[in-house]
Amino acid sequence: SAVISQKPSRDICQRGTSLTIQCQVDSQVTMMFWYRQQPGQSLTLIATANQGSEATYESGFVIDKFPISRPNLTFSTLTVSNMSPEDSSIYLCSVAGTAGNTIYFGEGSWLTVV
Amino acid sequence: QKEVEQNSGPLSVPEGAIASLNCTYSDRGSQSFFWYRQYSGKSPELIMSIYSNGDKEDGRFTAQLNKASQYVSLLIRDSQPSDSATYLCAVNPPRAGTALIFGKGTTLSVSS
User: pLDDT, tens digit, for every residue of A45-65?
Assistant: First the structure.
């Protein structure tokens, strides 16, 4: 499986600010995914990020709030814009395995909005 | 109807017992099914995948799939305290492309 690194691992953010989370993979991957896990909840897919095209967002998530970049096959960023306490979550970057049908996760970015 | 449903638990079993975790899904076109384990404060880790009806065994873990009933289960034999975690069922419905949709997870507690 790929090694997936996320930065920052943790952060405390002020209400109204924006934060960009970086995700670096040690191999080239076609599909990258961003998930959110709110406290005590399961994982919710935010968007799928393909290199060279616009990200595809799930219902309830919009580009203005969660802009995503995918400049190459090993890197992606997720920005959480104009944060509120409801955005306090773990944000997880994930990639599809070489077989294309299994998903591996990074260690997550734990954001607290105060 | 939620896409992937699990009982949230907690499911409590004594050490050495069999733990049975269940999951149902709504999209009959789903073809790939996964079980992840998540320890508190950690990201999910893949335990097993299953694609065909029947059983798939890997060590103490057995995944069972019944597509007609839209049902997936995970059995953990000889449960250990270290198995105490939240177990997430994930499904790959056609609408999601390669992405997975997760259930809310079942919390398992194994007592020694």
Answer: 999 998 888 899 999 999 999
